[in-house]
Amino acid sequence: MKTKTTTLQTATPDDVAGHITPVGGNVFADLGFEPAEAAALFEQSQKAIAKKLAIKAQLMDTLATWMVSEKLTQAKAATVLGISRPRVSDVIRHKNSNFTVDALIDMVVRTGRTVQISV
């Protein structure tokens, strides 16, 4: 009996996109915006990202402080927060790319605290 061999082809980044903006590069310039406008858009986006990261850091600090004050293990904190123990570790280590602001707010609320947002 003969066995049929199938070769799978997988897409590489070069097959999918013609250009990838390098880390720290200006995607707006790469999209064809005029240099002045690209610089302004890049600056605005960097400020927005910094604000969001600061919010995430504050929420993660609140959760880490809560764990210490309650003398909780990561496993016990995970149960209260409704997440896995490795996710608690990510919170403590400020791996903010792993969490949305919404998810962090939900965790803080599960600790019994109230989250206030002001604009």
Protein architecture, described:
This protein is an all-alpha fold and 119 residues long. The chain has a domain at 56-119: 434 Repressor (Amino-terminal Domain) (Orthogonal Bundle). It has 6 helices and no strands. The protein has helices at 13-16, 27-30, 35-69, 74-81, 85-92, 101-110.
Key features of this structure:
single chain, 119 residues, mainly alpha, 434 Repressor (Amino-terminal Domain), 6 helices, 0% strand
Helix content range of the residues, please?
A: 55-70%
Here the CATH topology of the domain at 56-119 equals 434 Repressor (Amino-terminal Domain)
Q: Return the string of H and E elements.
A: HHHHHH
Gyration radius, rounded = 22 Å
- The level-1 CATH class of the domain at 56-119: Mainly Alpha
Q: What is the tally of helical segments?
A: 6
Distance between the termini: 72 Å
Q: Catalogue the unreliable spans.
A: none
The major β-sheet equals: none
CATH homologous superfamily (4th level) name of the domain at 56-119: lambda repressor-like DNA-binding domains
Average pLDDT, all residues: 89
Total number of beta strands: 0
Shape: flat
Q: What's the helix and strand layout?
A:
Layout: H1 13-16, H2 27-30, H3 35-69, H4 74-81, H5 85-92, H6 101-110
Helix pairs in contact: 3-6, 4-5
